[in-house]
Each structure stands twice: as structure tokens, then as C-alpha cells.
Amino acid sequence: MTSDAAAPAPASSSILPAEAAHFGKLAAEWWDPRGSSAMLHRLNPVRLGYVRAAIDSHWDGDATSFAPLKGKRALDVGCGAGLLCEPLARMGAAVTGLDAAPENIAAAAAHAAAGGLTIDYRAGSVEHLAGERFDLVTCLEVIEHVARPAAFVAGLAGALAPGGLMILSTPNRTALSRFALVDAAEAVGAIPRGTHDWDKFLTPDELTTLLASEGLAVRDVTGLVFSPTRGFALGSSTALDYLVTVTHS
Q1: This protein's superkingdom (predicted)?
Q2: DSSP, res 36
């Protein structure tokens, strides 16, 4: 890693250069379900189910519709190589994918082009969107990687259009998450080493407070649980990881 990658983030950005460099190195394998992002591929169907249900509930949509986001703008912050952006585009949204790592943006753009999808991919920070507003803002497994969570949440709030919907997910800061996501998963290679800093995980109450400070209200909190036999699923326990649905207060 170069000295630039370890440098502090600029004052106007919540990006941690070391985090961007870490994930940028994984860009080439992002779409490989057996590669370094295998855990995300296992998580994605469960997360997509939650996102789709939240979309239908918020806009009184038809669960059988193929394009529940038709006519809407969606922003995925910390998009990686596009695992969520592409399904959102197929749901009819005009999608913008934003990521701190230019390598991820390049991989995302190439994959979307190969699949015939038009997605506006950008490298940068959510604080620099210059007043753009989106009907749907998603940010999954990202806030635990930023330099200043409060500034980051302010950026997310600024991107959410009136009447819009925001969906976030993040690990909880518990003994279970330390063991499962750091001590065990990184030790056996299920998650690349150095991916998580447990001290930066946010509890649901902490995240709710940050959101409330920006005029946002949490409408739902659902746990993401893991079973050796069932894999990942939605559940009542938030001890490992959780998803939240957010709107303007």
C-alpha cells in the first residue's frame, strides 16, 4: 500500500483512502461468486428481498411488477462493482452508482455494459453530489468504512428527495459481530483480512441518532441473521447485522 492510501481523508470527504484502496484491490473478483466477494453474493438475495419489499411498501407498489422503480432515480452509495445497482436498474430506475474506489467503478461499468445496462457510475464521495436528489438512496455495508459517519449521513440525507426512501445496512457492534465478522470470518478467509474494524461498527441506536440529527426517521429495523444450515436470512435479532428503512421525518 502506498503512503497516499494510508493518508487521512480530506476534510470535505468522509472517504478513508486506506478503505478505498482495500476494496479497490478486490475489484477484479467482485462478480466472482467464489472469489473474495463471495460473502456479498451470499448476502445479496436476502438484501434484495428486503429492498424490494421496502420499495413496494413505500410506494404502494404491486409485488408482481417487474419495474417498481420506473420513473424514479436511485443512488447506491458504496456501490462496489454494482451488485445492487444492476438489480435496481432492472427494476426500472435511472441508477447512479457511487464508490470511493475508481477500480470498482471501472469494473462496475464494464459489467453493466456487458449486460446491456445503462448505469451512471461515478468515483467519489456522497458529500460532493452538488445538490442532486434521488427517490431511492441505498447504502449497504458501507457506513462502517467511512471516516466521519455524521458527515456521511449528512451527505446521504442531502441526496434524498422529499418523499424518498433510504435503505441502509451495517454490522452491529456486539460480541457476536466481533467473533463472526472479524475473528472467525477473516481468519478463515471468508472475508478478506483487514475488511472490518469492529470499533467502527454502529449499534441501531447510534445509527438512529445520526439519522435523526439530519431530519431522518427510521421506519423499520430488521436483523440479518446467519445459520450454518440456512445461510443468511432476515430475522428479529440485530446482534450480527441489520437493515433499516428510513424516510424524512
Answers
A1: Bacteria
A2: T
